[in-house]
Amino acid sequence: MQITKIMLIRPIFKALIFVTTLAIMACTPKFDWRTVRADDLMYEALYPGKPSRAEKSIQFEGERLSMTMEAAKAGNALYAIGSIHITTNQKVDVGNLLQYLQHGMLANLKADVEAKSEAVTVKTAGQPSYELPAQSWSVVGIAPDGQRRLLKVWLVQRKFPDGQTWVYQLSVLQQLLDSDSQAVNVEEQAMFFSGFKPY
Predict the structure, then answer these.
(1) Measured distance CA(199)–CA(186) in Å, rounded
(2) CB 34: neighbour CB atoms within 10 A?
(3) What are the beta bridge partners of residue 39?
(4) In whole angstroms, what is the distance from residue 22 CA to residue 18 CA?
(5) Cis ω for the linkage preceding 198 (within 30 of 0)
(6) Under 8 Å CB-to-CB from 132, ≥6 apart: which residues?
(7) Which of the listed ranges 20-24, 158-162, 177-181 does the model predict with the highest average pLDDT?
(8) Alpha-carbon torsion 90, 91, 93, 96, what sign?
(9) Which of 4, 35, 137, 146 lies deepest, with the highest CB count within 10 Å?
């Protein structure tokens, strides 16, 4: 898949979501659902359009980690999946990393109420398929560009017997044009989250 390099700001989650959002906000593509296999990132996903890709290295607990974000915009929302590969030689507390990603993503919106949290499951690709425990958050607030937005985030980890781990951050960032628009993309958001299947 073609990799598009964009200017990134820190922290990494702000760059990969909000800079990408502002860069493509001028156009509003229609929904054109397709299954995309990202073999190098160990997942398949259902995107509402052709995703672009951005990459960035980050330092966490003394280890250099690579985060890859694939994202596609459709309607008034950005659908994105971030992937971090933790090798057997990297000493990273995955629980701390998940907390770091969660706090960073939710901090991007200035909200009057706390983010709603819910336990969810993610099914793996292939047969037999396994259910992985995951956590989701949903919050409405004001983004750095001053627009009112809805952010939904899922975090899931996939551990392999050889010791390597993949951490995935699924997100939908939807612009809210009025009080009724929050429900506009509910069905599409459900398709995106349920269509994600790690290997």
Answers:
(1) 26
(2) 13
(3) none
(4) 6
(5) no
(6) 121, 122, 123, 124, 156, 157, 158, 198
(7) 158-162
(8) negative
(9) 137
> Taking a C-beta distance cutoff of 8 angstroms, is the pair 86, 62 a contact?
no
> Is the per-residue pLDDT at 14 higher than 80?
no
Which residue intervals of the chain are DSSP H helices? 12-14, 20-24, 94-106, 186-194
Q: What is the largest CA-CA distance in the chain?
A: 49
- Which is it for the CA torsion 59, 116, 120, 73, positive or negative? negative
| CA angle (54 as vertex; 74, 56 as ends), nearest 5 | 140
Phi, psi at residue 190, to the nearest 5°?
Answer: -65, -40
- Under the banding of pLDDT at 50, 70 and 90, the label for residue 100 is very high
> Is residue 190 helix, strand or coil?
helix
Give 31-66 pLDDT, tens digit per residue: 999 999 999 999 999 999 999 999 999 999 999 999
Q: How many other β-carbons are positioned within 10 Å of the β-carbon of residue 23?
A: 14
Give the DSSP H/E element, type plus range, for residue 72: strand 63-74
Give the strands of the sheet with 34-38, arranged side by side.
34-38, 43-47, 197-198
The lowest-confidence range among 3-7, 11-15, 106-110, 156-160 is 3-7
Checking DSSP bridges between strand 34-38 and strand 43-47, what pairing results, if any?
A: antiparallel
Q: Is the pTM of this model over 0.70?
A: yes
